[in-house]
Amino acid sequence: MTEQKVTIQDIADALGISKTTVSRAISGKGRISAATTERVQAFIREHNYTPSAVAKGLAEQKTYNIGVVCPNDYEIFDLQYFHRCLEGVSDIITDEGYDILICLLHEGELTNLKRVVEKHKVDGIVLTRTMFEDPVADYLKECGIPLVVIGSSPDPELSQVDNDHFAACRELTSVLIGKGLKRIALIGGPNTHIITDTRRRGFEAAFKEAGIPVDPSLIFMDTDSPEQTTDVMREILKKKADGIICMDEKLTSYVLAFCKSRHLHIPEDFCLASFYNSSMLENSAPPVTSLDIDDRKLGDAAARLLLAKINGEEAENVMLKSYQIILRESTNKERPR
Asked: What is the Cα 92 distance to its own chain's centre?
């Protein structure tokens, strides 16, 4: 018999045993004698039998699918992050015979996710965004399905993989303070996102370490559109900030567009930096100083942690320090100290 023609039924017929016994011998689970297991394994070796993904899944009661949950409200700016995370997950799970099933969710609507979970289409799930009020994570935790979140969460019961954004944002802010900047404005996105709070705390910690009081009037949260950014920039100019840090590349692009429309010059009028890097900021005019976060490593670590949970192994939370500060022209100006 050729490898393509051999099935579990073929093995069962040849050895005079049931398909269930063959499956147990292949998976190593269930009550079966050592002698029978050896007979099955010897047959497999002799005929170069490789169980199909479906047969293997049935034998082990696994689907060999990993669900990756992404928000459906992402923008073009978010694609780089999700793409890199998916690459990292894929790098690990494909070596273990798993495939990825992507589940897109819109504004907390759980219908698609419930269908995936309740029909047992995946063995575990990676959640790519964490929120303070998180109905997605709450639902998955109640279901008892193996779950790993990319990002930090105040829920100690959730398995988490994150980068040390607090340390990274504190370090970048400290670099700008070291350049003589003392009135640095911070522009951030939705306060519902945990990453927003983490980045803000890192920003404030840098000022505390430098012995410089933070001016709360220079911190602008819940900024999420070009129109809102325009209003924020008018306030920043009135307050004569000498630097601006945006929490992500989207907000940075809005600031760059505002400056271009008002004929403002960076870094001559003020320095500009971003807490998240992208190819767009690398190629902007001027190129923008940024924090380069290795999102691929986040996906890699999340996949390893999830596979450990699926296999019933002990698995600890992971905090990576895979970031670096990329200094570019947008902060290439020393200020009087």
From this structure: 14
Greatest Cα-to-Cα distance within the chain, rounded to the nearest angstrom = 88
How many angstroms separate the CA atoms of 223 and 234, rounded?
A: 13
Separation between Cα atoms, residue 12 and residue 23, nearest integer Å: 9
Q: What is the pLDDT of residues 125-170, one digit of tens each?
A: 999 988 888 889 999 988 889 999 999 999 998 999 999 999 999 9
Q: Which whole-number Å values give the CA distances from 166 to 161, 180, 323, in the listed order? A: 14, 22, 11
Q: Which of 275, 240, 232, 238 is nearest to 257 (CA)?
A: 232
Q: DSSP secondary-structure letter at 85?
A: H
Query: For the chain, what is the mean pLDDT?
Result: 88
Query: How far apart, in whole angstroms, are the C-alpha atoms of residue 131 and residue 196?
Result: 10
274: which 2 tokens? 């971003």
Report yes or no: 190 and 222 within 8 Å, Cβ to Cβ: yes
- Distance of alpha carbon 201 from its chain centroid, rounded? 20
**DSSP-assigned states of every residue in 255-311:** HHHHHHHTT--TTTT-EEEESS--HHHHTSSS--EEEEE-HHHHHHHHHHHHHHHHT
Look at the alpha carbons of 194, 298, 81, 327 in this order and tell me if their dihedral is positive or negative: positive
The helix, strand and coil proportions of the chain, stated in percent and rounded to the nearest 5, come to 45, 15, 35
Instruction: Return d(Cα 173, Cα 176) in angstroms, integer.
Output: 5
